[in-house]
Design brief:
It is a single chain. With 96 residues, the protein is α+β, with helices and mostly antiparallel strands. It is 47% helix and 12% strand. Strands 1-3-2 form a 3-stranded antiparallel β-sheet. Strand 2 and strand 3 form a beta hairpin. The longest helix is centred in the middle third of the chain and has 13 residues. The termini are close together.
């Protein structure tokens, strides 16, 4: 699982801002995969560049919220339904 896939999966349940995504990611992985906030925003910038997320207005003007575009929803759905190839030991997607 990549950070990209994880953020798409988290955003599939609703709009979020960066610190929310980081907290939810770390909670979902049981704290065994700490995530740097800079990595979250770098990944969000790439997802936006690739047309998978868009910025939305949040309740607080200081927070930038992100939402999936249709392409992002399609990408998240494809990840959930595509079997993971067996390979070298690493992080187990299903376990995370």
């Amino acid at each position: 699982m990549s950070i990209k896939q994880a953020l798409l999966a988290l955003l599939s349940t609703g709009d979020r801002y960066g610190y929310e995504l980081r907290a939810e990611f770390e909670a979902a992985t049981g704290g065994v995969w700490p995530l740097n906030i800079g990595q979250v925003y770098t990944t969000l910038d790439r997802l936006e560049r690739d047309g998978l997320v868009s910025r939305t207005d949040g309740d607080d003007a200081r927070q930038v919220h992100y939402a999936l575009t249709q392409a992002g929803r399609d990408g998240a759905a494809a990840w959930w339904t595509t079997p993971v190839e067996a390979g070298a030991p690493g992080r187990d997607d299903a376990a995370l």
